[in-house]
Amino acid sequence: VTTDTHDYIAPMLKYREVGESIGGMVVAVVIALVLGVGAFLITLFSGRDERNAPGVGIVVGVLLAVLWFGGSAVKASYVQVDSGDIGVVVNQGKAVRIVEGGQHWVTPWIEHVALYTKRVITVITVDDPNVQGSEQYRTFPQTVTSSDTVQGKVHWQVQVMIDPAKIIALYNQHGTLDNAIVQSVKTPILAKVRDEVRCKTVEEIITKIDQLNAPMNQHLVERAQPSGLIIIEFSFRRPNFGDWEASKHATAVAAQNALKAAEEAKVVEAQQKAEIYKAQTAAQVLQLQAEARAKANVTQAEADAKIASTSAQGAADAAKIKADADAYVKTTT
User: Fold this and answer.
1) How crowded is residue 222: how many other Cβ atoms within 10 Å of its Cβ?
2) Which of 20, 44, 57, 163 is the most buried (most CB within 10 A)?
3) Could you tell me where the DSSP H helices lie in the chain?
C-alpha cells in the first residue's frame, strides 16, 4: 500500500481497509464451514440408522456452506451509491476507478467503495461545538494575540466541497473526507489566521477583519486543490476581544456621556444667557418707556407754558392797544 502524501492517517486507513476485506472473507468462510459441519452432523445423527446418512450429511453440509458463502459473496459484490455521493473503488488499498449514483458491482472482499458526499460542506467556529446545528463541521473559535499583545478569539467559516475529478487524489492523500478537511482546510486556516493577525493591532483586527478574507481564500485554494477539495468561500466573522472591547466600550460610553454633559451644560448656559438678555431687554424697554413718558410730560409742560405766555402777551398787547386808543381819543377831543 502506497500513499502520495506524508499524512500518516491515509496509509493507516488503507491497511485497515485491506485487513477488513480479508477479515470479511475469512469470517464468511468460517461461518460457511461451521454451517456445513453443523448440517453434516445433524444429518448424520438424525439418520444414523441409514447406510447413506454420511453421504447425505456431506451433501447437505456442502450445499449449505456453498449457499451461505455464495450469498455472502453476492452481498459483498455490489454497492449502492446515492445521487448526492461519489465513490472510489478500492482494490486492496489502491484506488482503481470512480463510481457515481446507482448500483455498482465490485469483486467481493477484494474491492470496496469509499463513499464521499458531493454536497457543500460548511466548517464553522462556534462557542460550543457540541450544540447541535445545521453545519456539518463545528469547531471552537481560534485564540489569537494581536501585535499589541491583546488576546482574543477569532470566528470564521468556510464552505468547501470535493472536486469529483480529483477524488482519487483525495483518497490517496487523506483517505476520508473528514481527514482531508482537517489536513487541507482547518490546519492551514489555523496557521494562516495566526500569521495574518499577529502583525496587526487589535483595533485593526476588529475594524479591518474583512480585508483578510481575500488572502485567506487564496491561501486555502492553493492548499486544498491538490487534495481534491474546492474552496467556495472563506469569511471571517466578528472577532471577540472580550475585556479590551469592554474597556473600549466603557471608554466610548464615558466620552459620549462627557460630550452629552458638555452639550447639556452649553444648553443650560445658553438658556441662562437668554434669560439674562430677556431681563435686560425688559429693563431697557421699561427705561425707554419711562424716558418717553418723561419726555412727553416735559414737552406738554413746555407747550402749556408757551400757551400761557402767549396768552398773557396777547392780553398785555390788547390792553396797551386799548389804552393807546383811549389816550388818542382823549387827545383829539
Assistant:
1) 11
2) 57
3) 9-46, 53-75, 167-174, 177-181, 187-197, 202-208, 213-224, 242-332
Bridge partners, residue 81, by sequence: 102
The residue type at 13: L
Quick one: which of 148, 252, 247 has its CA closest to 205? 148
How many Cα atoms within 13 Å fall on the side-chain side of residue 2? 2
Q: Residue 298: what residue type?
A: V
Name residues whose C-beta falls within 8 Å of residue 101's C-beta, 6 or more positions apart in sequence: 81, 82, 83, 84, 85
DSSP letters along 42-70, please?
HHHHHTTTSTTHHHHHHHHHHHHHHHHHH
Rounded to 5 degrees, φ, ψ at 206 are -70, -40
End-to-end Cα distance, the chain:
178
Backbone angles phi, psi at 122, to 5 degrees: -110, 125
Give how far the C-alpha of residue 292 lies from the chain's centroid of Cα atoms, to the nearest Å: 78
Strands 121-125 and 156-162: antiparallel
The three cell numbers locating residue 62:
456442502
Q: Do 229 and 185 meet the contact criterion of CB atoms below 8 Å apart?
A: yes
Q: What is the pLDDT along the chain (333 residues), one digit of tens a residue?
A: 333 444 555 566 665 665 666 666 666 666 766 666 666 666 656 655 555 555 655 666 666 667 766 777 677 778 888 988 999 998 877 888 999 988 888 888 788 888 999 999 999 888 877 766 556 688 888 888 888 888 888 899 999 999 999 999 998 888 888 889 988 999 899 889 988 888 888 888 888 888 989 999 999 999 999 989 999 999 998 888 877 766 676 777 778 888 888 888 888 888 888 888 888 887 887 887 777 777 777 677 777 777 777 777 777 777 777 777 777 777 776
DSSP-assigned beta bridge partners for residue 151: 145
